[in-house]
């Protein structure tokens, strides 16, 4: 014969015993922990498992909200706003709150991928190879398209063969340096920032 606690109504009886509403209706108060259930008593803070906390800046826009990144065994487990920051004072917008998904997404590209002209597949390449290739192509394009003087004799020292579109996460200081390097150094005229678009 089956025990009564294991019968078909056992789950329902357990639910009623653990449910806080009947206790509160019977007059139990917060002091009696009337609103507690076994489920709520078993809950643990998700950050309790973290063995390390680091700081970062949200990657999604130019506001520069500070973040606290909690990690366990070197893997991020939670990200929240840093309350010490005068910028965001511990808050994050929905995009910033989703940073953990960006970090841990299996679709996140973490390798340099290169597709050769007319190829139908991507190849993994070392970062140093990619940086050297970009630098070589920028220099070659600048040299091939650089204009010192216009036909009327005016000095312009510019190129129309290169342009820059900065990301929205760049702050004023980074944009200043980009303008100096790309505009003053390379002679680019087409310099824009995603934050203004």
UniProtKB/TrEMBL annotation:
Gene3D superfamilies, per database record: 3.40.50.740, ADC-like domains (2.20.25.90)
Superkingdom classification of source: Bacteria
Gene Ontology cellular component annotations, sorted alphabetically: cell envelope
Protein name: Dehydrogenase
Cofactor(s) needed: [4Fe-4S] cluster
Domain 4Fe-4S Mo/W bis-MGD-type, residue spans: 51-107
Organism (species): Lichenibacterium minor
PROSITE patterns: 4FE4S_MOW_BIS_MGD
InterPro entries on file: Mopterin_OxRdtase_4Fe-4S_dom
